[in-house]
């Protein structure tokens, strides 16, 4: 009788225990399985919105580090600024680690979404999540290839070292570098998939939208010198999102930041967390500052004169540098692409649409060019002046120098003059040392 | 030790010959109520005969030789050894003490069963109420310090209480606390120490493995007082007062005003922070800096400047703080206990009230009520029930000295907080004073911060209530089988409120920050409404425990088996809620909503921010199901073997049900050598050996092998709800394993002159989960958790009690000696930089062969004789290249492993002297064989106001030659990168941490009994206690207390009275 009792009681417990243990431990913690779960992963701004082009910008000619600040820089930042022998990217975040964090999130999302059936009921969200993941992955890979690979060159791109194409979330898989060609194939695939399901207007600008995907494609095609496609996609973007912020309507205290998500912003992303590339830390190249006319509103809105130079305040991302997509960039891509194809009058007209919003009302005289070369020179100058500290300048230098622009970047450190010559190997920024140590992949030569 | 008298034996004289075999008969009864004890087993050890008593307790047994010893045991009773010198055929009455009547050291409670001490094979440590009552702390665990082999570690970065060293790196490191039968989930501070009968620490695998996966860090079983059957009404009363002084803020090793101003002048001369004057955020400067700015602008002459600075040099905020913020502390404790019992029922009621007022005027009040009863429902069925309530409040308004800040965590030392007329003065805070004074055009709220006034406008209050109900049913299925069902319900609520009235700086600052001032009209738009701010946090916890257990107790011939098997089910649900009310009107309890969605340009900088919103809620539900069993087999009452096994399952996320089970087991043997026939050592009547081997585990409830996301609040940039990956899938993750071996000997010399036990243990932990670097390309962050580490530890524990003088004057010495050492045996770490191996005792050492909490630092090459800059070694060469020294230029040979940061040897020496009713106890605590890092200047932290300037600044290098007598680097600006990171982790700051501390002195006077008896009082004693008496010896030559480098704990003095009726 007693044994029966014991057996009875224990079996009751056993039977109920499976169900008992199926309850979730923490209501907030889940194994991602629904579209909501994975869409919210991509709304995690601290992960997805940090597209750090800072290390590239830090090597560009827009940035100036006063001697006093330079003396306090950590070795990695110092080398970053002076194109030194090796970076010490062992800080928590770097362009590399941050971009791959985004990529891993998208890989998880794409793995999970492949397990979710697309039905009539969820099609809208399914497509949006699918395309959002592809957009983020394309955006991050585009940033990586621009930073860590040499300039695009179809004659060598089968052997030029690109970055690691990681398309699965398992961190035990060894990272190996793919060729530049393979990387661009992947980026273009992802960016094209992004077009499929993105909405024309996002709920918030931290989420990608269709105009952003067009602009991203335009940006990629510009980098690989396919000006026809770059121009077409930029045009598609400006058709869907023609808005430009009129700086005449912007009133800010000196040094105050632009509002976030303003009319210029199509896709919001921020740089940041590099130890020195912060708006209140670095200064602006003096020549660049002087190149703005006093009637150019950007002179006041973008810069704040402090004791040791000009601080940059033109960011659309608060205390960080902006590294997203803005409508001025789409106009500039369109202008450059049109001009490169020979339609320089149209190119100049496109440029003037933008500049009109930048000059004090009544002072702007539309710019004109007499030749394609003339127009290209103007557009390149204006591109630099508009897209300051947007994480694009270093990539532009790399791209234009490859096409013979012959821009030499110079730094004076103490009595020493440093130069970064066109097509220098150092245009491919070194990969963090710990990555090389752990994977054995080849480092970018200096 | 009244309970040592367990046996009253009545014998009548007999004339039988001592040599002749014959029968011995008698009756076995329960001590106290004298009811018959049925079916007891009686063994004559030398005669090797045995029998079982009948239902009435009568027995008769053949004895072949005398003298002999009868061993009598019965389920539920303490076994008894009784010498037989003469045979007697009738009239013997033998009294057995029921296990439930047992107390203290003879019985050990594991939370699952109560074991007689002679049958255990594992390692247990019992602390009885006498020892617990030597100290008066309100918190139970604090009373164990200096009285147990637990190591109390004062370093905040390491686990506070450890047993035999840590055995997990990333998992929980806290002890498992069992209250009576079940894990206690409420706050430990809820337990009233006056309700506690004893505490048992389960130390090795054989002892703790019954608690399975949560026992890896050691188990503490707390047993509450119980009533006893057939006991008249007893009342006990205890009352104590503890007094403490104010803290001595001058013990803080921070630079004084003169040194601080000197630093500021040096910085000013190098244009430090000049660019901040142009910043939109209007960052604050110190008063001395503002004076220097005025001089620079030409508003002050050199003489005027010096005069003003001189007047600042005279000030020190510490004097104002000691005067106006602090007071003497007073803790009051009242406890009442009433117990009694009839034949059918016993009961115990206790009530306690604590009121602690700290030196910073924080008040902690606790009321605890508890009622427990045991009822014999029938011959076969007994029930224990209890209910307890703890109600507490904590109120604190006054800031501690460190909470008054000017920017970040620092306050300039020359702050004056009160004027001569007793009016609170403002200090500079957050924004430049000149800006604060003018910007609002008188339309904004006053933006000044008055530290000595401000706390009157804030209220912090935490209120909690904890209910615990237990029921325990025991049903005797047969003479040897008992079925036991237990149940416990805990319910705890905790309400925290933090109220900032509109007059408080916090609220005024928030309102001003979000105000928009129309400079033309002077109209102010308040985005945060006028009124107070109220923050609320509500936490709720409910824990349910159920247990079904079968116990077997069987004895036949020379064999004895005692076993239990059962299952536990546990569920703990915690929910928490936080919310904030703006524009709160305390009188009418109403509030006003604010816009927390849209960004608003802040007043000072115009940057777009949202009004902060702390609203959140969360729910956690932890569930465990466990099956366990253990068995002990004893042969001849001399040899014991035990086995124990347990499996746990929990609802850890992402673990398949099949993998949820984690089996853990242990086995042990014991040999009571002193009872062997050949044993003839008369001066050592107690000699017992024990050995055990087994595994305990460690569940880290958040680790599993799949990708897990957490639903969070909102993104940094948008109000969109987000989810965050908290764990990246790792299919290779396994449970951690801890293997423990224990060998021990228990001994006592004749007359218990020297008694104690000596234990050796060996611990090996494998598959330890540790943070390891991962290729950043994987996108899983810089580190992931993997089973990559292993460690081993070993130690010795000696506990000794000697009765040095045992006459009218008594002198007893209690020695606790612990030796513990551990070592990392494997650790996967890809080395990039020597600095990743540098550890200062605050984190687990990632280096094979090093102690778990080791001190590994940069080799020190002294200060540079030319510049006073610190120097280390880079590849064996003296170097000041800090970035390389702290980066990947350094090799392991440039580092020096100093040793452990936790003591290798520690323990206590306690002497008690007593004479008549007076006794005095002096307890010394010692720790040896370890190191600590001395704090010193950190220039970059001091300049950026992230920390205070250390007083070592006064001893810094100033000119060549100083390097011969100082290690403090010269003033340097700007601070080269990694300068401070090198110096603060260098060998120069390592000191020996060995020390001896006077833990407490207690005095006790027991009033003579004959006087009291007439007044109907059983006993009265008055006692006094002095604690935190400070360090009496230290190994370092700097005069530092290794555990309290700055403020020493305040000495406290208690007096109290204990009475029984």
How would you characterize the largest beta sheet of chain B?
Answer: 22 strands, antiparallel, barrel
Q: Quick one: how many beta strands of chain A? A: 11
In CATH, the homologous superfamily of one domain in chain B goes by the name: TonB-dependent receptor, plug domain
Broad structural category of chain B: mainly beta
Your description of this structure?
Chain A is built from 18 helices and eleven strands. By secondary structure, chain A is mostly helical. Chain A has a domain at 35-227 and 265-284 and 306-326 and 390-439: Alpha Horseshoe (Serine Threonine Protein Phosphatase 5, Tetratricopeptide repeat), CATH 1.25.40. The model of chain A has no long low-confidence stretch (mean pLDDT 89). In chain A, strand 7 (303-306) and strand 8 form a beta hairpin. By secondary structure, chain B is mainly beta. Chain B is 9% helix and 45% strand. Chain B is built from 13 helices and 53 strands. In chain B, helix 4 runs antiparallel to helix 5 (302-313). The longest helix of chain B has 13 residues, at 257-269. Residues 1-19 and 100-105 of chain B have low confidence and may be disordered. At the A-B interface, helix 1, strand 1, helix 2, helix 3 and helix 5 of A face strand 27, strand 31, strand 35 and strand 36 of B. Strand 1 (29-30) of chain A pairs antiparallel with strand 35 of chain B.
